[in-house]
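Human: Here is a favour to ask of a fellow structure person. Comparing notes only helps if you start from a blank page. I am asking you to supply a protein in sequence and structure-token form. Write it directly below this note and I will take it from there.

Assistant:
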Amino acid sequence: MIQRIQTLYFFAVAALFAALLFEPAVVFFEDGKPPLPASNMMYYLQPFFSVWEMVIAALAFIAVFLYKKRTVQMKLALLNIVFMIGFYVLVGVVILLINNSGNKLDWTYQLNFGIVFPAVGIILSWLAFRAIRKDENLVRSLDRLR
């Protein structure tokens, strides 16, 4: 399990997204201060991003322990990539809504260093997928030799 390189890739993805919980990728503000619960939907958007990040970290962590089921591990790696791309799409949509709202909304946002974590996670998940596929091809070729 630990000897395989994809395990390190999955642990790195899980660690990146666990760190992203403490250093948000994007922070939203209303009138220069964090939004209040009763004010609008933006208050509920930040926890939604956190839940999304926890799901990605959990998928990567679960994939580590499925080392005997390589096909399931490959599917989880691809699903994780889709979720990370979805994270960027969601951030982009919200930022686009804020920028195109004109003066109607007093929302602002601040991109933090954590915004690069999903990109690194996509690369690491793809590398894990390739390593798992390589292992699977090796096992299949050895089965043919028997």
